[in-house]
Fold this protein.
Amino acid sequence: MRTIAFREALREAMSEEMRRDERVFLMGEEVAEYNGAYKVSQGMLAEFGPKRVIDTPISELGFTAVGVGAAQNGLRPVVEFMTWNFAVLALDQILNTASKMLAMSGGQISCPIVFRGGNGSAGQLGAQHSTAFESYFANIPGIKVVSPSNPYDAKGLLKQAIRYEEDPVMFMESEVLYGDKGEIPEEEYYIPLGKADIKRQGRDVTIVSFNKMMKVALGAAAELEKEGISAEVIDLRTIKPLDWQTILESVKKTNRLVIVEEQWPFASISSEISYRIQKEGFDYLDAPIRRITSADAPMHYAPNLAALAIPDVSRTVKLVKEVMYLKK
Amino acid sequence: MATKFSKETYLYWYELMQLIRQFELKAEEMYKMAGKIRGFFHAYIGQEAIAAGCMTATTPDDPFITGYRDHGLALSKGTSPNACMAELYGKATGCAKGKGGSMHFFDVKNKFFGGHGIVGAQIGTGTGLAFAEKYKGTNNVVLTFFGDGAARQGILHESFNLAMLWKLPIVFICENNNYAMGTSVERTSNVIDIYKLADAYEMPADQADGMSAEAVHESIARAVKRAREGDGPTLIEMKTYRYKGHSISDPQKYRSKEEVDEYKEQDPINKVIKTILDNNFATTADLNEIDTKISAVVEASVKFAEESPWPDDSEVLKDVYADASTPLTVD
């Protein structure tokens, strides 16, 4: 199988769907002539031309509104945010128009649109470029949230979102994953939304994560294995709808659950998972559900503070041992 | 005396404007007297000439999108009074299945794209509708309506910029009725001629008498022609006036009764009546007959709304996702 980078997987997904369907177009800051701020859309202007690969001014609310209106009038836009931190300027159009129009119109107007871009922290970028937004958007009825961890999943999920989803999809990538390589088959494939994936089988504890924190989860599992602890690692892939059934089935086997995520802690994805699993799987739990999230603070610049603010392998290993009552 | 438009046009304007006014007067009665309608309710009364003139200057394929003062434009685009009244009642037979209410009328078959409650948001969404028309290569022009209050939102500037940059087929129509809720135009900006906001984007712009269906038609026809020919957007500021408060609960302490009465002397319906009678397009008896017909239609819409069922309880979790198989978070 061939190996390509995460950014190329995203590009293939968009390009394949644009070749298939004239209604699909890409719009965003620097996506065309600059070939993408993170080179995700490299070469797409050359292939599809300026009608379908469209540079916008720095005008998030404006071009988001254009995408939403276009989706409601028969097109299937892909809108790139250079980072999801900038999408906050466009939240009115996403929350008040894109997510609600189907309901408000009594089912007349759907909004098949994909918003995508880098999400979460990416090194020492300071407070305003480092927020992880999955929980914000997952809170909104009518919206789907995807947050892949590897090139294979990213391609299949993005193709699915563009071609088959009739509702707004928030597609959360990561600046620090764009260069990651992964195996991608030559043949076309799609991955349905709403299905978690067990990336590593185990029997002693379940670790749930998504996006770049999957590296922490898998890294912790590898460390734990050295000490004879078998961790099952689940990659959510889609945040909403949440595939809690896969988590529950794993917890029925391991009886212990640790969640690793980059969200701030309050009302986060781990909050929702913890609620659901205690409700559906109370009798299967041998320990309280625990989690590691980002620190409940804006992210600071200094390297030690930036590192402390997000989950890491050693703290995850320690937490797993706590839920296994091995040592404090 | 030669008139600018045909007899049929004046009679169409008369009938449409009377329908809007009688419908809203009745709806207001059902709200205040009968308690049948709830929520925010923003009357279009006084502004009907804008809807009338825009209708004759466009085709049925041209999409309309507006803010929450939306009853008049929905009725104009062809949404049935029955469906409109039922929507105000919150009934399943409403134009949004009882899920929208007064502020959120929708009728996509008739190219009415709502009915939007966040002041000014539809300026951007309408720009997107126009983007799609151009992308698809249609000949349609989008009419995007908003008030003087919305003209102070940032989305207006981003939309103007993008619409000019991409020469989108759109007419931005500011229905300047002098008040953003209770705040007069003079109190919202140093720039009180709203059409001048287009200058920053080199967008053609004009001011028109929004109390005259003739003036509205002429200004919109020019703008629509420009858009259809591929020359992009236009901003038209319609100087108009609402006779009623901002919403049904507005005590209107910010303006005098004399001011309201002064505007009522320019009433758009009376103007059309005068033209019709002066030119013998119809007799007073003929107009009375139209009134009687409209009155029957409005009464029937109340009966229809009264007799219609509420949405089924199961609808509470429907129309959330277009893909109805999407699981919701349910405890």
Q: What stands out?
A: The mean pLDDT of chain A is 97. The CA atoms of residues 201 and 213 of chain A lie 18 Å apart.
